[in-house]
Amino acid sequence: MEITFSNVDFAYDKAAKPLLKKFSLKVKDGDLIGIKGPSGAGKTTLFRLLLGFEIPDSGTILFNDKPLEPFQLQLLRKETTWVPQDLDLGEGKLSEVFYFPFTFAANRSKSPDEMKVLSTFEALGLPKSVWQEEFTNLSTGQRQRVGLAIAYLMDKNIMLLDEPTSALDEASKEKIRNLLFDGKRIILSTSHDPWWLDRCSKIIELK
Ligand SMILES: Nc1ncnc2c1ncn2[C@@H]1O[C@H](COP(=O)(O)OP(=O)(O)OP(=O)(O)O)[C@@H](O)[C@H]1O
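That is the input. Now the predicted structure with adenosine-5'-triphosphate docked in place:
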């Protein structure tokens, strides 16, 4: 698979200076991309453009060499998981809310049994006890690892990770990298974390 941003300009406020100016990037299977830059530089906006929530003012975004027309966008979305920095699964015990992302048609076939979920939690250093906890009572780092567990279990070819290590200790970071990075899928990550950026195959800096 291949994703290409070619000379993309984008502004939310069309009267203001563009947020992204002539942004170009080519990524392919096995790439682990780190996108860094100050808050507000447009890192998350790149994900929104890729998923078609925003449209470039000029330039093109290609998925497997084809423009993101509705059909191609649908194909891309099917292949993609986005893990936000602060996952919100709503109210309820984790064992109840965990399956919500697996209720969507594109993910239903990936819905894991409880044993698989708990063994993934173990691999990410999450104690089994969190399964019966209220999701909203989990720590930020635990919620983040739940999001990454969901991404792992969905097993998509493209992962968009927002600050994947921001609330994690070094041991957990290592576990997450080992679990998610299989050398085959595309991982696009926003990050301020030198530890994570050091392990990326390519770093993009937004000003
Ligand atoms: N839907 C929107 N409508 C208008 N402006 C927006 C919208 N989303 C983001 N912005 C603005 O665009 C700029 C870039 O936002 P973006 O979330 O892409 O930044 P970021 O680099 O991911 O920041 P952070 O590191 O804080 O997450 C910010 O100034 C933000 O306020």
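The CA atoms of residues 128 and 142 lie 12 Å apart.
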